[in-house]
Design brief:
- By secondary structure, the protein is mainly β.
- It has two domains: about 280 residues, Jelly Rolls; about 150 residues, Sandwich (Jelly Rolls).
- It is about 5% helix and about 40% strand.
- The chain is built from four helices and 31 strands.
- The strands form five sheets. Strands 1, 2, 3, 7, 10, 13, 15, 20, 21, 23, 24, 25, 26 and 30 form a 14-stranded mixed β-sheet that branches.
């Protein structure tokens, strides 16, 4: 949930102080923390058009020296320049391009996820290169337009994963079919389902089993006027119309009801000061809203908002202008925008890499039924890396490069935030429908874990 052109506020710090005598704060983990290595689930990785490559997240890509499949009409292209938005820019310099690209790889039968890595090396405008992705004879991504999908940028990495690929004939088939221009692919990673380490200890949870208001020993309401951040249109309230526990779920409901004279209302709750976490695993089982103009998010912000602020005006001024964001970091476990239904996003924000310098680090996954069914959105966080999942599919990793707090402010406690925004700088980029409301995000539970050996 990007804080573009943000007016930073002191309310979080004040809230922590006010609530401290009633909080349950999760103990900070020791820095010797370790977690399962997601690279262990990889069964095949290839640097398309390039040499063997070991990436920052521990993936060994094989050189693309294989004989291409029948029907392939691709050729190798080597980009000139620097690829932004990734910790492995050299991986994206080579690509295969063509009207059709076909990979066939022998693999044992089973269920896999496929991560595809792209970078547009030629076009600076969207619509110039568009293609679909087919896996095992099924269209799994209708349209890839890297410039459009990567925030209007070329020479910038774009990663998207496809979950639940069922292989039954001992050969994985991946095809890219051009609609406009030529298809392109820079790298492919195939993984087995992720196995969660059994050493996690549950430390904090909310199952939302009691109908009524949320448990205020665990959650805080944020009461904000429209356009406080990101040009969003909603007023955040604590009304039961906007946030409540009902039928075993937390319901966050965005409405077009002109409450207090504002067209849209919604809710945003946080666990700040009541469920803070430094290193561990976060799980949120949720069903997302659909509809043009919806922008739900499951994310985390630092509980000490000013931890890495370098300059502030009067710290008691609610409308102070600081660089607390992005300096102190932000962890977006899940974002979804209604104009691009089925494509979910995870992003890490910090001073070194955020949207204004075009170096933002992020990953996406395409799963059309996220607005129809519950899924488990999870994040595992250690001093060395952050990995983000949907169900048992890893779809984004961010690695500590040990270059200082500017790229790794993730060494302080963070808290969970749940909300639906309406419109705004991203959610409203294609407009806001006025005839779809109300829209709900349903949350079955929120659980925070740390390693048993550290609790």
């Amino acid at each position: 949930m990007e804080y573009r052109n943000m007016l930073l506020v002191a309310s979080t710090s004040l809230l922590l102080a006010a609530c401290s005598q009633h909080t349950f704060k999760i103990p900070e983990a020791q820095t010797q923390h370790h977690q399962a290595n997601p690279s262990d689930q990889i069964v095949w990785a290839i640097n398309s058009g390039g040499d063997a490559y070991l990436s920052s997240d521990g993936i060994q890509y094989q050189a693309d020296a294989i004989k291409m499949a029948s029907g392939d009409a691709s050729h190798v292209v080597i980009a000139k320049g620097t690829i932004l938005g990734t910790q492995d820019p050299n991986l994206y310099l080579s690509s295969r391009q063509g009207e059709t690209i076909a990979y066939q790889q022998p693999l044992a039968n089973g269920t896999y996820s496929v991560t595809l890595r792209f970078a547009e090396d030629q076009w600076t405008q969207e619509g110039k290169r568009q293609f679909s992705v087919w896996i095992e004879g099924q269209q799994r991504i209708p349209v890839i337009d890297v410039v459009n999908d990567r925030d209007g940028r070329n020479m910038t990495s774009y990663d998207i994963s496809v979950p639940n690929v069922e292989l039954e004939d001992g050969q994985l088939n991946i095809d890219f079919k051009a609609a406009t221009g030529k298809a392109s692919i820079s790298a492919i990673v195939v993984r087995k389902p992720y196995q969660v380490d059994k050493d996690w200890q549950l430390l904090w949870q909310d199952e939302f089993n009691q109908d009524g208001r949320v448990d205020e020993t665990k959650w805080n309401y944020e009461l904000w006027a429209p356009k406080r951040v990101n040009e969003e249109l909603q007023r955040y309230t604590d009304r039961s119309e906007n946030v409540r526990q009902q039928g075993g779920n937390l319901i966050i409901e965005a409405r077009r009801d002109f409450f207090q004279g504002d067209e849209y209302s919604s809710a945003r709750i946080t666990s700040a000061g009541k469920g803070d976490l430094l290193y561990g695993r976060v799980e949120v089982r949720a069903k997302l809203p659909d509809g043009l103009g919806t922008w739900p998010a499951i994310w985390m912000m630092p509980s000490d908002f000013d931890a890495y602020a370098e300059s502030c005006e009067d710290p008691t001024d609610e409308q102070k202008l600081c660089n607390s964001w992005p300096n102190s970091g932000e962890i977006d476990i899940l974002e979804h925008v209604g104009f691009d239904e089925g494509r979910i996003h995870s992003t890490m924000h910090n001073k070194a890499f955020f949207w204004k310098n075009f170096k933002q680090r992020k990953g996406a996954l395409y799963e059309p039924d996220v607005t129809h069914n519950f899924h488990l959105y999870a994040m595992e966080w250690s001093p060395e890396r952050i990995d983000v999942f949907i169900d048992d599919t890893l779809y984004f990793s961010y690695i500590n490069d040990h270059q200082g707090w500017q790229s790794w402010p993730f060494d302080k406690p963070f808290h969970v935030i749940l909300n639906i925004a309406v419109g705004g700088g991203w959610g409203g980029i294609k407009g806001v429908a006025d005839d779809i409301w109300p829209k709900q995000m349903l949350i079955d539970y929120v659980r925070l874990y740390q390693k048993k050996s550290l609790t």
